[in-house]
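Take a record:
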Amino acid sequence: MNDRPIGFSTSDKIAYGEQANMHLHVVDPERRDRGYGVECVRRSVDIYFERLKLKRLFCEPNAFNVAPNRTLQKAGFKYLKTHMTVPGPLNYHQAVTRWVIER
């Protein structure tokens, strides 16, 4: 925003041409809760679908973190389930909400 980064997006668990998982973090606290996350998710989704030739894209934020769950819903993701898992190598066992967007 205004030539300054406000966050970043990454993907993993990539099965080219099929599916992947995505993550998005708005790291600038002053930019949170202002709707930027929804737009950033939408743009990231477009990039991942185009570059990775995906059919579906998943995201699994912590189930108790309301902001990313609302952001994914507003960006067009569909709720699948809430379950306990270790979402990544830097995470601990936790409840996550699994969302998907398909094209």
